[in-house]
Design brief:
Keywords: Hydrolase, Protease, Ribosome biogenesis, Thiol protease
Number of strands: 5
Protein name: Ribosomal processing cysteine protease Prp
Radius of gyration: 13 Å
Helix content: 25-40%
Family: Belongs to the Prp family.
Oligomer: single chain
InterPro entries: Peptidase_Prp, Peptidase_Prp_sf
Low-confidence stretches: none
GO molecular function: cysteine-type peptidase activity
Order of helices and strands: EEHEEHE
Number of domains: 1
Strand content: 25-35%
């Protein structure tokens, strides 16, 4: 299962962590994993280009962490946009993907 954890305070996202494997298909044919990867990778590219001074991104083999170090309304909106897209996958594949929000 892929798990995402979002930490928020005062309606602002402070951190986002995603890890795990969807295990919904054979390697290279896992549509849940492919969808999650496309959303997160595209978002990371935009975040890295537009907000490199506002965030810390750590990518390892099985985990991605985003920490907000300097708040920005547009940055928060982009993170929410990414999460909304991920929530559509969570609704369709609840056995393979879980998002947890911590306030």
């Amino acid at each position: 299962m892929v798990k995402a954890k979002i930490v928020q305070k005062d309606n602002k996202i402070n951190s986002f962590v995603i890890n795990g494997h969807a295990n919904s298909g054979d390697y290279g044919h896992d549509l849940v994993c492919a969808g999650i990867t496309a959303i997160v990778s595209g978002s990371l590219n935009a975040l890295d280009i537009k907000f490199q001074n506002n965030i810390e991104i750590n990518v390892s083999e099985n985990e991605i962490k985003i920490n907000v170090i300097k708040e920005n309304e547009l940055l928060n909106n982009l993170l929410e946009f990414m999460i909304i897209q991920l929530e559509t996958i969570e609704v369709q594949y609840p056995k393979n993907f879980k998002i947890e929000r911590m306030f």
